[in-house]
Amino acid sequence: MTALQIHQKLQAFLGSSSILSADLGAKQPWVELSADHLLPVCQHLHQTPSLHFDFLHSLSGVDEGLEKNTLLVVYHLSSLIHEHQLVLKVRIPRPQEGQEPSQQIPSVSSVWRAADWHEREAFDLLGIPFSGHPDLRRILLPEDWEGHPLRKDYETGDEYHGIKIDY
User: Which residues on adjacent β-strands are paired with residue 60?
Assistant: First the structure.
């Protein structure tokens, strides 16, 4: 199935105005959705026999910087049976340190189990909040670590528990 055909199926499922943007001619065709559409779309992509996206290659978080003030999550999906691929993108406002996020991204770990650790990593390193995640806590850094090191405005402290942090 081509990227255009997958896009048309998504438009039929969601309505054409629910897809925020897309580039179907890219080397890795992508579709951008709002966060509130992500989980139903992922369930649809996984459960619809003609689509059957059964493999989540990766889930990556991106800090788009203070100018845009957004965080982006990119999902690389494949159907091993049908041999087609799609990239989904979801963008949310950047939560400020110490404040409740104005928007969260729904966890897709109920659709693809591999998302569990990918989401924890994006939460740990970028502070991306995933609602409905079964165990959203740090995975690479200690629980008492302050901040999110992959954020563009992150400033490394001088020490951690008496250990000098020097780069």
Answer: 74
Instruction: Report the number of distinct structural domains present in the chain.
Output: 1
Residue 95 in contact with residue 101, Cβ under 8 Å? yes
Say if CB 91 and CB 104 are below 8 A apart: no
Element spanning 30, H or E: strand 30-33
Cα–Cα dist 115/95, whole Å? 21
Residue segments in the chain with a per-residue pLDDT below the cut of 50: none
- What gap in Å lies between CA 162 and CA 41, rounded to an integer? 47
CATH number for the domain spanning 153: value is 3.30.460.80
> In a 3-state reduction of DSSP, which class is residue 69?
coil
Could you tell me if 102 and 125 are in contact, meaning their C-beta atoms sit under 8 angstroms apart? no
Answering whether pTM is above 0.90, one says yes
Q: Which domain holds residue 158?
A: 3-164
How many CA atoms within 13 Å lie on the side-chain side of 72? 14
By the 8 A CB rule, do 36 and 131 touch? no
